[in-house]
Request: fold
Amino acid sequence: MSDVPPATPAPADREAASASPERAGAPERAESTEPAEPPVTGDDDPALRAAHRLCRRRTKEQDPAEYALIQLVPAALRPALHALWAAANALDDLGDDRTAPAAERAARVEAWITALHRELPTGASPDPVRHALVDTAIRWRLDLSELRDAMAQVQDDTRGRDFADWAQWRTWGRDNLLPWFGLVRTVFDRAGVPVALRLDTREAYEEFLDGVRLTDILTDLSADLAQGDLLLPAEALDLHPGSAADLPRRRWSPAVAGLLTHLTGLARQWVAQDGLTRGMHPGPATVLQTMAALLHAQLDAVDAAGPDVLRSPPRPALHTRARILAPARARAALAWSLTPLTVPPRQRPAAHRPPGPAGPASTGTFRRPPPHPSGERPPEIPPGLLPAHVAVIMDGNGRWAQQRGLPRHAGHRAGATAVREVVHGALDIGLRHLTLYTFSTENWQRDAEEVDAILDLLRGELAENPFRDLDVRLRWHGRAGRLPPDLVDLLHLRERTTRARTGLTLTMCIDYGGRDELTRTAAALAARARAGRLEPGLIDEDDFARHLPRPDMPDVDLLWRTGGEQRTSNFLPWHAAYAELHFTPGLWPDADRRDLWQAVTAYTRRQRHHGAAPARSGEPAGADGPSAAHCVTAPAAGSGD
Reply:
């Protein structure tokens, strides 16, 4: 038996979870009015079949609207979606079980997540919901580490939530919903129906999910208030004085009525993203459009409930749901009948081990990077001497390949290995920011085959996610218009799922150009000045910095270039204005963490003035650099020396 408590099961769930294999394979009488779904492809495990049926039953009983939406996708995809929904709901149930104190609920959530990590390599679990989730992750090659922050949030929520404004509320809601929806999109992608979002719809997509979250909160308002939760921002409550006092008492008042009218209107606005599905495959588009229609119907029910919304969850009438779902089923059936799908068979854990949450996701712990193969240890650099931000121009990939008689893309692949090594070295010494010049605006001028190879390599590295278990926050700097939408999607996914990490911030500059960055900043300033929000004659450096595409990126302390060239090549001209320059002759694929350590060690010996007079011997050098006692100008040293 599992030592981890599952979410409190319904009686039917207990029966399914404890049934014998023969009993577990019996038909579901509760769903006899519907055509039976085919068994999961390649599945000969009765316990697994029972686990997937349990997830399906829970979805149908606990969220009929979600179940109806899943019925709009091909039957072969439904077990995966039921498993994802049931897992998210099981965690929420553990966190919301008010029969236990907050500390115990948090411990149960952590135990559930820890057990999932332990069970992923085995491919099975004594808990039926986790068993179905583990099978889904293996079968569809899902990266469950993307759920790290969403799962950790459930544990944090056991301590209660307060939101000062909509910005905090959105961050909370998106951190919870986006990773789960991202895995659903991955299932479609693996089936051969990618749900890549256009660049102009990304914010609309996230706002749509804000509408999903707000509708859910309004629907469950009575249950939340009964257990002392009010999951609305103070910014909204303050617009309706008195509502913050009336709601916890479940007292209907003009202030509460005005607040709910305002919130349902806001949710309708967020859900009404008409352009979201433009250009999308008609199958997923039908699901999203139907979801929006059901959300609107739910909001109508909230409005119609009046004071009763504080006593019980409002639901749309059955005929309203039928009016929405009947044509949706017909459209979905037609769309999927014309779409060939790729459905992977069940894989054994030995054949494919999906990446997991990397330990107890709720504790926020991460692995240390592996040691250098030589056994060499990193230098001990006092924090006061360590540069805050190192930027690297990774030059020499093509030349490295040509010297070995290999195609140029082989050099880029070898360069990707060097990136991993240098990131490990940055973590070893506690570096806070590392920015890599990955693909410049000028690189589009290269041979199309080489460009495609570079983009494919980026796509593969992002999909593999080699830093998933490390405390690395991944960011992307550059333009999106010319990049493939699926690559942009992956970049946004990695940004979103790592943004809570506090170790190394790794920024990949992809389709980046320094002059382009400055031009975009000037255009943003001009637009604000034209709108009367800035006085042109008073614009200063701080104004300019605030309008950069990445205004929170710190100045570069050390700019390192490999490959023997001694120029900065349009890389971070604003941020690197006062950077120490470090040029090394070795080609990038030959670099490893020791070269980074040498570059940083050389930096610690330099005296930085930023235009001020040098400090006299024995006097402090100032806040911008190491003390004069350590500052001896040194030549750049690198792997080729």
User: Anything to note?
Assistant: Strands lie at 389-393, 433-440, 472-477, 504-512, 558-561, 580-583. Confidence is low (pLDDT under 50) at residues 1-35, 350-354, 356-363, 618-641. The first strand starts at residue 389 and ends at 393.
